[in-house]
Amino acid sequence: MVHLKSKFKVFLLILFGMVSLAGYSQKVTVTGKVTSTTDGEPLIGATVQLMSDLSKGTVTDINGIFTLETAMGESLKFSYVGYLSREIQLDATAIAGGQINIALEPNSELLDEVVIIGYGVQKKSDATGSVIAVDTKEFNKGAITSAADLITGKVAGVQITSNGGAPGEGSTIRIRGGSSMSASNDPLVVIDGIPISNDDIAGMRNPLNLVNPEDIESFTVLKDASATAIYGSRASNGVIIITTKKSKEGSPLTVNYKGSVTFSQLNKRIDVLGADEFRNLVAEKYPNQTGLLSDASTDWQNEIYENALGTDHNISVGGAFKILPYRVSVGYNNSNGILKTDNLERTTLALNLNPQFFDNHLKVNLNGKGMFTNNTFANRDAIGAALQYDPTRPIYEEGNRFGGYSYWKQNDSFNALPVEQGSANPVALLMQKEDISNVKRYVGSAQLDYKFHFLPELHANLNMAMDYTDAAGTVFIDSTAAFSYDALTGGGQNNRYEQTNKNELIDFYLNYNTNINKHRIDAMAGYSWQHFYRTDYAVNQNLTGSISDTSDNPTEYYILSFFGRANYVYNDKYLVTFTLRNDGTSRFSPDARWGLFPSVALGWNMKNESFLQDVDFLSQLKLRAGYGVTGQQAITDNDYPYLARYTYSQYDASYLLGNTFYYTLRPEAYDANIKWEETVTYNIALDYGFMKDRFYGSIDLYKRITNDMINFIPIPAGTNFSNYILTNVGNMENTGVEFSIFTRPVVTKNLLWELGLNATINKNEITKLTAIDDPDYLGVETGGISGGVGSNIQMQSVGHPVNSFFVFEQVYDQDGMPIAGLYVDRNGDGEITYSDRYHYKKPAPDFILGISSNLNYKNWTFSFSGRANFGNYVYDNVSSENGVYERLFRPEGPYLGNIVPAVYESNFTNPQYLSDFYVKNASFFRMDNMSLNYKFDNIVNNKIDINVSATVNNAFVISNYKGIDPEIENGIDNRIYLRPRIYVLGVNLVF
Amino acid sequence: MKNLRNIFLILAGVLFLFSSCVKDLDTTPVDPDDVTAARVYETPEGYKQVLAKLYAGLAVSGQDGPAGQGDISGIDEGFGQYLRGYWYHQEFPTDEALIAWNDQTVKDFHWHTWGSSDVFIAAMYYRLYYQIVACNEFVKESTDEKLDEREISDADKTEIANFRAEARFLRALSYWHALDLFGSVPFVTEEDPLGSFMPEQITKKDLFNYIESELLEVQNLLVDARANEYGRADKGAAWMLLAKLYLNAEVYIGQEKYTDALTYIKKVIDAGYTLTENYEHLFLADNDHLDEVIFSINYDGFRTQTYGGTNFIIHSAVGGTMDPAEFGVGGGWGGLRTTKEFVYKFYPNAAKSLQVSPQPKNLKSYPVIEVPGAHQGWDPATAPQLASVNSDDVYEGYVWFPTTGNAFKFTQGGSWAINWGDTGADGTLEPEGTDIVAGDAGYYFITVDLVNMTYTLLKTEWGIIGSATANGWDSDQDMTYDAETGLWTATLELVAGEIKFRANDDWTLNYGDDGVDGILEMGGANIVIEASGNYIITMKLGTPDYTYSIARGSFDKRAMFHTDGQSLEINDVGLFTDGWAITKWKNINSDGTTGQNLDYPDTDFPMFRLADAYLMYAEAVLRGGTGGDQTTALGYINELRERAYGDESGNVENIDLQFILDERARELYWEAHRRTDLIRYDMLTTDKYIWEWKGNTKEGTATDSKYNLFPLPASDVNANTNLTQNPEYGS
């Protein structure tokens, strides 16, 4: 895809070339044809420029023909992506016959285009694994504060779901559906050679916020085991390698400013009853309770949401000072969320130095990154409260003791105590709670690559890095807040927390690379040491400090690895790659901690075979097949699962014996034999390209089998210090097809259209869950919902996809209305019991489609990218909880609560949480961004490039799902932070 | 070759680096709160902290209160708390308690429709085994050999030996719960390893024998009854548990063991426990250290927090019109009520036989003037007040003059700045006039008209008249005035009918209650008395509004119901206001102050108490156990009833088994005994006793006898192939 990028630059040059050539003497009109030396075929869209003014020129048409008016004696430059440029002086010889015919030679260096793989790079043509690179040119546009958003929808098999609409909110990334149930499903993210910890950082919305998206040069996604196995035990969920921008030796000084203003707007609201409708319904359903109604009409969602502004500024300076190429950048982002009081302020610094010494034998790459974030988190309880708080209540009630905000009272007096269960005033929730954090993260790395003087084929590479994060935050709730009122201890909260993360890395590897006749060998062996340490400190107390709870939890783990890779290519046709990694983790016992992760892959460059060499329409054809084993040890919140340990209780869980409260000591459940989870991946793929890669892409078929899943499952009672334990039980399979195509449907002088499409089908199934196969075993409940405390809506069962909904089959009356509490007696025992529930649909889509398009017309570029998911289902928890009449009036306060109009579709009085009525098809198409860009010509003698753009992010969603947003990672729709529509105006200056 | 040597040197150096780093993988926890098993048992303190966990396992749900680091998984932490789970199992399938909530399968308990996938049943079951395994571990780690190995001092060894006996008691307690709830269950002791194996299932008979033998042994090892530290088990607890095991032996193993039961109940009774004077105090925030309690699960508003335990019981019982403050909580959870069949245990003859006076509603405040004088030290700021009910400068009220010839004046605004007297004693008021002097000592009705500057004084004596009284509408029953409280009271035997209050045996001044709002109106409507009984009637006059209350006098004070806004009939189990609410448990101290924390009660849960032992004694005697006698039994029962009634009016002369069952309900309701009791009487599932919503019908119906036991959770039957499910529960 890199050549698309070059193509674009050329195109811009062409745009400059549309300038009149009037004023020259000795005018001459030149025509000609540009062809390829390899096959004599015409090159479409090749550039023809005047050497005297590169901004002038033209491109060849569909037959490779160009026409240009110029002067005799002028020199012309012919260039084409992937080919060496040529220059021709216009003289009599050149235009003999009235036509200039030029044949361009393929640029072998460009054919050697490389892709980044783990611990090194590889010629793309030699790659045997599923490796997809996405670079700056293809990145999504607009208000991107999180790195992952850059490639949403761009890569087949990669599903990126933002966790909500807050500024800087994180995303859930799934590559080929995820491989685990209880362990992490997040891919390994490697930033400039440093595998980063995916652990959440306190007070930070998203660990990936470390990198300013503007500093990112490329994303490389490693999908199959042949590509990922070099990362061994952390590679089961795929690997994303992020490379940041660098300067090259001899680069001219370039200053780049990019700035934007964003305007976020709520584009949909959760439908709730209006004040009048609410009044009428209360009067109808609870005629004795109308005395609880008030006189106001408040639209609570109006009161908690606002249009939000944000700004983003980035300046980078790149160049080379003598032998020292450098790039320095500063980014500043300040974004408000649409939920009032929500704000993200982030400053990023990045410094990159990459000098070379000793006659280029020693390459040094020094990298420093800093990120400073101030977050103000809006109180998200307000989102739910805005649904439920009585719309007939006013916002304010001047002069009361609870900050003047209205609230539910225990009796009629003005300053009565609040009803504990009554929903809180949404505005009070926002205004009376302050939740701020300050996070500083520093990453420094030094990479030394030494090419041995005595043996230049051998490189030694040493990489040392440190990733340090210091986070601190405070949560403060006013003493007057009714929602935190406590008559005895005083209301309010004053919590503090701090977190320090310290991750260290040392990598060392040797790389040997040689060509002997038709044999090419690339071998690498290395060692890696990584240490992860974190400590969390928190003090939770009320305002007077009479209740105080302090916790301090340091923890650490190590991963050691030995790894190697051998890549052998014969005659540019036959490729073999072996990788082997031996990983050790401190998380497992000495007997179980070392895991061996091999992979092997074969490739066949069919295009290079004699029988295809002459098939002109085919520009590339490569068959790849790979097999590999990867591992997983990313266990959430326990770094010592194999050790017999005791844990002290907290202050508030102590026990009185005699006159002393004892902090108790609890034996922890453990599995002394816990070991790696393993995923075996088979991948077979075809890379194709037609018509000089005017169409190209890949088809991948894969099967991933996870064995010995690290699983949190019930164990026989009486055998351990809990009923569930983290152990290796269960298998799971993902089977899928990925298809991608990139094409340029229109290439003309003024108009260029580039289109990328990708599609993924993934099927997930749990194939084993118990140590002994038992067809009667129902499974493990999961998916807690809001409303019925402790109720779960999903069930992990053998033969079903992960997180399948597990529900009753609703019975409907003749009008199609569901009948409350009446379900199909699926097991036919004459009773409706829990055993009548069944597996019905799942949150993961069957089919994912991504589309992105770039349309250039003269100085204008219009681009968009969007995604569609099909077959994903959502449990509408908003309706199941709030779409019932009984929530209108709660006698335990008593208080009134608002409900959603979905109640009219069910007429339920009491909640029917487990009905399949609430499991809805949430297939959707989302237009992630649409962008219009204009490039100005001739500014300050072409010394400055100016680009102006207007973008809409999250432009629209098409879906039959009636809830607020069909795109919900875990499939349970419950008061998501609404994703706003964001308008972005941006400007980019380069000089 | 030189090249190769260089490479070799580099590799050698790198290998050296590797081998030193491999040791990094041998980590131990860096968190000082997180200790390895070996270190825990190095000191006696460590033993005690683990012992504390064994007790806390009954009280809280994990290592972080109220929730955060749960002991068991797969269920909401509050639901998975031991006592809450036990309470659910022992109360919900019976006539004593219903819950309004929709939590998962919770209502299946009421319907008797639970199955082996039930999450609450699984939680209880796994809770039991959590306790059992933790106790096993402690027993294993506290053997003499281990203590010697760890060089624990002799004094500490004796102490730890006590701990060990308590751990064995706690294990026996949980195994008893397992036997009672589940019957034949997996069996593990300290002999079993930890880790992946499948425990064998033990028969009920063998489990019975195991519990019996353990208790018989530990009863000799434990600290003497009433001699241990608060919160820890002693001989009394072991005897009580043995007695319970024997009393139910027929259910468990088909053998009668009533004589054995009596043996150990007598040991308990003879140990010197005494009944708490006031029944109500057993369930309050300061119910620790009561001499009646043999073994309890203890809570503290700050130090021992959970969403289960008494926190659940107290919060869930509050809803509807109940004032959370009266229960020492910030708000109710609106869940628990009871059936009418349970109400009938106290009030067998009438659907609504509990007289409660309406809570005064809509009390208003009015413009006032004061009556300072000799009766109170001439201080307008603290003087009795008269109020102008219509804000028309005409004031009225009642003032007590303790002595004859009491002098006084009227003031406004709480100071002498504005004051009136009656210069010349002519019945008209003058600003700054001379003192007014009343006649005889007494309770005066005073009116002041500041428009016409007049006033009146009328000495009053109050009485109650009406068809509910002994003399009907013919003459009054006198009330007496208590100057200390400012209340008029009378204790009367009333029949169903009506009453009014009147002064001086005359209708000139009389009060009734219009709108039954608890506020008296001059000439207001008659007040209805719904049932005959002994009543204490109180009237508070003083400054308007005037109020009154009517309370049962001599009656069974264990009947603690809240009926305002609650219907006796339960048409909708999901509605808190269907069914009478129960006010037995509170986070209020016996002196009326509130517990430490509105969210987490201080109230302990008495698991075993003397009253239970008395009732068990009587039952064991009636069931044919030898070693006791009926006279003693009757004496014990009447001790309980005298405490309940406050006098001998509730005493009985004959008792039979049905009476004992009902008396157990009255004495021990909502203390997690009911299901076991009903099964012992074969009434849980049969048609011998039916209550509302038993078997999932409004009227109630018999259910399958399989529901006398809970099923083993399907998850364990699946995980452990040695297990056979209880009859008729399928797999």
What would you say this structure looks like, in words?
The complex is a heterodimer of chains A (991) and B (731). Chain A has 991 residues and is mainly β. In chain A, the strands form 13 sheets. Chain A has a 22-stranded antiparallel beta barrel. In chain A, strands 10-15-16-13-14 form a 5-stranded mixed sheet. A 4-stranded antiparallel sheet of chain A has the order 3-2-5-6, with helices on one face. Residues 1-25 of chain A have low confidence and may be disordered. In chain B, α4 (82-91) crosses α6 (119-141). Chain B starts with a helix and ends in a 12-residue tail after the last helix. Among the domains of chain B are: 1-221 and 692-724, Serine Threonine Protein Phosphatase 5, Tetratricopeptide repeat (Alpha Horseshoe), CATH 1.25.40.390; 368-460, Immunoglobulin-like (Sandwich); 462-552, Immunoglobulin-like (Sandwich). In chain B, the strands form 10 sheets. In chain B, strands 17, 18, 21, 22, 23 and 24 form a 6-stranded antiparallel sheet that branches. A 4-stranded antiparallel sheet of chain B has the order 19-20-25-26, with no helix packed on it. Chain B has a 3-stranded antiparallel sheet with strand order 9-15-16, with no helix packed on it. Classes of the chains: A mainly beta (991), B alpha+beta (731). At the A-B interface, β26, β27, β31, β32 and β34 of A face α1, β1, α3, α6 and α19 of B. β31 of chain A pairs antiparallel with β1 (34-36) of chain B.
